[in-house]
Each structure stands twice: as C-alpha cells, then as structure tokens.
Amino acid sequence: MAFTRGGPPFIELIEGPAGSPWDASAGARFDHLGFWSGDVEQGSRRLENDGLPVDFSGCPHGRPFAYYRMDSIGARVELVDVSLQAGFLDRWHPGGKPMPFIDEISGG
Questions:
Q1: Are 14 and 6 in contact (CB under 8 A)?
Q2: pTM of the complete model beyond 0.85
Q3: Which distant-in-sequence residues (6+ apart) come within 8 Å of 46 by Cβ?
Q4: pLDDT of residue 108
Q5: Residue 101: CB partners within 8 Å, gap ≥ 6?
Q6: Distance, CA of 98 to CA of 108 (rounded, Å)
Q7: Which one of 9, 62, 82, 107 is most buried, by most CB atoms within 10 A?
Q8: Number of neighbouring beta carbons within 10 Å of residue 54
Q9: Which CATH architecture does the domain made up of 30-95 adopt?
Q10: C-beta separation of 55 from 16 below 8 A
Q11: How many CB atoms within 10 Å of residue 78?
Q12: Greatest C-alpha distance within the chain
C-alpha cells in the first residue's frame, strides 16, 4: 500500500492479495473513494439505510473501517474512523492540517 504525498486529495495504491477485500487478481481497477467518519457504525447504518450493501467491514475484527458497494459509480465507498487520521497524517503528510470528516452524530 502507498499513498501520494503533498496533501489531499490522497491517492492510495493497493496491491491486493487474492481473497482479500482488495483482491486485484482480475487486474488493476478503480476500487474506492474513502471518507473520514466521526462514527463508522452510525455511518454504516446510514449507508445501509440508503441502499448501499456492505462489501466488507473491519469493525468486527477491531479495525474501524467499512466498505460499501456503490454500483452507480462502479466502485466502493469506504468509511474510516477519524480517530485514525492523526496517524495517517503523521505518516503520509507530516505537519498536514486535519482533513474534514463526516460528523454522523450531528449530521454535518
């Protein structure tokens, strides 16, 4: 896995092993758009209520992220808990400003 540096938007490149949620055995493709979420569980309920089927959730495995199929764009939407953002910025954009996140609690 690698990310572009220099600030948002970030492009993530993943070499997905066969059988993983990022399986690339069928060839390279656009996989997902990622969003920071203030509450992945509540955001997951919102996406499911909006008709997006869950494709993979790391939550049951102690990993605060989830993917939902969005067939209209031919890809997935990923929610990642905003609590992971500081570590992401430290690694991929040191000194970078916090990025916006979906505030699932207040709806903003």
A1: no
A2: yes
A3: 104
A4: 60
A5: 35, 36, 37, 38, 82, 85
A6: 16
A7: 82
A8: 14
A9: Roll (3.10)
A10: no
A11: 22
A12: 40
